[in-house]
Amino acid sequence: MIYLDNAATTRPDADSVRAAMRYLEEDFFNPSALYKESFSVHKRMEEARRQLLSHIADPAKFELVFTSCGSEADNQALFSAARRGNFVTTEGEHAAIFSSARELGKRGVEVRFAALNKDGTVNEADLLSKVDEKTSLVSVIHVGNETGAVNDIEGLAAKVKKINPRTLFHSDGVQAFGKIAYRMSAVDLYSVSAHKIGGVRGVGGLIRNKSKTLYPYIYGGGQENGLRSGTENTFAIMQFAAAAEKKFASLAADHARIASYNQMFRKGLDGELFCILSPLRASPYILSVSARGLRGEVLQHMIDDAGVLVGTGSACSARNRFSRVILAAGTDEKTADGVLRISFSAATTEEECVSAIGIINRCARELYERTR
Amino acid sequence: MQEKVIIVRYCEIHLKGKNRGYFEQVFMNNLEKALAGIRHEIRRPSGRYIVENFDAERTEEIVEKLGKVFGTHTLSVGTKVAADIEAIFAEILRIAPSSGTFKVETNRADKHFPLNSVELNAEIGGRLLEKNPELKVDVRAPACVLHIDIRENGTAFVFRDVIKGAGGMPVGTAGKGMLLLSGGIDSPVAGYMIAKRGMRLECVHFHSYPYTNMQAREKVEDLARILAEYTGGLTLHVVSVTHIQEEIHKKCPEEMMVTLLRRFMMRIAERLSLQTGAQCIVTGESLGQVASQTIEGMTSSGDVVKTMPILRPLVGFDKTEIIAKAREIGTYETSVLPYEDCCTVFLPKHPLIKPKLDKVAAAERALDVDGLVEEAFAGLETLTF
């Protein structure tokens, strides 16, 4: 089995899972309890928090709040910061922002969607034109989860603040964290998730500028400085920190290697059947292609049966037939119908890529012949 | 002594003359099957079934299960009390409404009971009026009927509400049919209607993986599971028609895809019926609903079935009527899940509305019909619910 759907989730890094098992076995204590055994777990958790945060931000200025997932972090950012006035976001957001924005609209906050460029990044002029003195929050995805398009969030944040210094800037960094080089500065809120970089599911985080107000999304026992109640998932947190440590240590080398695999696919996929949707400057970890005229999900089933797992941008379903994000970048329906999303992880090997390219080409050709 | 009982009354079994014993036995078996795994006892005094000795907390669950058994006309949840006036009245007082009109209706199986039915009605009604002046007697159209059922063994059932059951005839008393179950709204309703007349069902579902997905398949299994609650178990055969569709797509006129595919489905269903002892094919077709469901379309697909009838219980139903029924029996929400069944990859833009039999047969000659049917059978999967 060759796994190339790493943007959906990655295989948890085995070493860090083993190391973190002690937080399920001997050190299972609730870190908020008052006996010394708990306090020791608490201390190690705080160390993990600082470590995770230091990879992309200055702990003096920023703080990491653990959440249960990236979606929760997105929701907290949105419902905390966009309480009044208007909220500006893009057509290229993950559903965690897009659906939350719709809900925000129902609750009476005006929501403005900025258009995308052909390459899937947000149209900067359109975005900035939507920001005004009443804009409470702007949210722009860092790396698009469907095409891998990379937005210059620091540049955008600085320009937004020039228009309205009180506007907060959030970015969903789930597909960026641990994969592309980045340091937080003008961005106020940033969502991350463990399971896209070898962590387990069940933990994510919202990084925030400490000088800006953040409200809780889940109320209760007051964990995470009152910003996110609920007993801390110490196993997942400790494993996340260890997996991230590993990932950040090899970030540049991984990036270069994955970029070469990405290139192999761009060159190796049968040009008669496939067109490449991801822009050249996209994150190399995500490659969106379309077998125009074929249906993505049907092709995916065949590729699956041949032992390669990839994602798809269309479905054999009356609803959600086409990806909203792919269409928003100006792609026609026929192309949008044939979308496959190939996504890599640090564990992906060159041999896997070579055989996957062969299998994907063969399946697409076969499907083309069968349905011609 | 106070114990919950459920009284089950049946439908048309009393019409069946000399066969009545058989119908009653099948019905009894189906009631037992519906309550499998739940502690209970069912007795059959004259004219009804009494369920006793169950945990009172599970009453609602049991009523729901029994209400789905075809043949059940109505049900009542009652209390078993000693057959004396004081005990009966105490229970009547407990279940009586606080205001409005009522009447008391007694059924006296034990003719030794000191009062006859009319006298007991008057006695209990009178006492109730004394206790609660807000109540009024109305023997013609009362808002509430309080029932007393004096049994032979010194006990009486007291109950108030009559709950409507699924009706129909006990499944298993009217042969066996092979239902074409698609995953849409119509076919589960068709299966329900025909099972309601007492027919045992097997189902056949056609899929076209990889053009359709696992979720679509799961959906059909869910529908079979819902139907099985009414039919006391169900067998589902799953057959791939992928290669058949591809062959039609390659070798036959585009507009004949559905017409020809329907003929293959009928052939497979007939053969499956012969193998499993089913005596007819059941479909959810409704006249004129879609292109393949015209009289010409039905003639074309029916033409290949030589040894048994095709029953189409929904043929004269409007879509809205079918939807209402699907909601009522609980299949609608599952049916409208948006997965495709026979994938639209091969769906023609302009399907043939009035296929001509000779032209269809001519187009079909391009295909190895027997070979394709054989191949479909080789991949057959059978599931039971």
The main sheet of chain B comes to: 9 strands, mixed
Output the CATH topology of the largest domain in chain B.
Rossmann fold
Largest sheet of chain A: 7 strands, mixed
Oligomer: heterodimer
Instruction: Please give the alpha-carbon distance between the first and last residues of chain A.
Output: 29 Å
pLDDT < 50 stretches of chain A = none
Descriptive key words:
heterodimer, A: 372 residues, alpha/beta, Aspartate Aminotransferase, domain 2, Aspartate Aminotransferase, domain 1, 7-stranded mixed β-sheet, 5-stranded mixed β-sheet, B: 385 residues, VC0802-like, Rossmann fold, 2 domains, 9-stranded mixed β-sheet, 6-stranded mixed β-sheet, 13 helices, 15 strands
Describe the structure.
- The complex is a heterodimer of chains A (372) and B (385).
- By secondary structure, chain A is of the alpha/beta class.
- Chain A folds into two domains: 14-248, Aspartate Aminotransferase, domain 2 (3-Layer(aba) Sandwich), CATH 3.40.640; 250-371, Aspartate Aminotransferase, domain 1 (Alpha-Beta Complex), CATH 3.90.1150.10.
- Chain A has helices at residues 14-20, 36-54, 70-81, 95-106, 124-130, 153-163, 234-249, 251-268, 296-305, 324-328, 333-337, 350-371, and strands at 2-4, 62-67, 86-90, 110-114, 135-139, 168-172, 189-193, 204-209, 274-276, 286-291, 308-312, 339-343.
- A seven-stranded mixed β-sheet of chain A has the order 2-8-7-6-5-3-4, sandwiched between helices.
- In chain A, strand 3, helix 4 (95-106) and strand 4 form a beta-alpha-beta unit.
- The radius of gyration of chain A is 21 Å and the shape is globular.
- Chain B is of the alpha/beta class and 385 residues long.
- Chain B folds into two domains: 3-164, VC0802-like (2-Layer Sandwich); 176-384, HUPs (Rossmann fold, 3-Layer(aba) Sandwich), CATH 3.40.50.620.
- Chain B is built from 13 helices and 15 strands.
- Chain B has helices at residues 20-34, 59-67, 85-95, 117-131, 186-196, 214-231, 242-251, 257-276, 295-302, 319-329, 332-335, 357-364, 369-378; strands at 3-10, 41-43, 49-52, 72-82, 100-108, 135-137, 144-150, 155-159, 163-164, 176-180, 200-207, 235-240, 280-282, 310-311, 381-384.
- The mean pLDDT of chain B is 91.
- The A-B interface holds A 295, 297-299, 301-302, 305, 315-320, 370-372 and B 209-213, 215-216, 246, 249-250, 338-340, 343, 345-346.
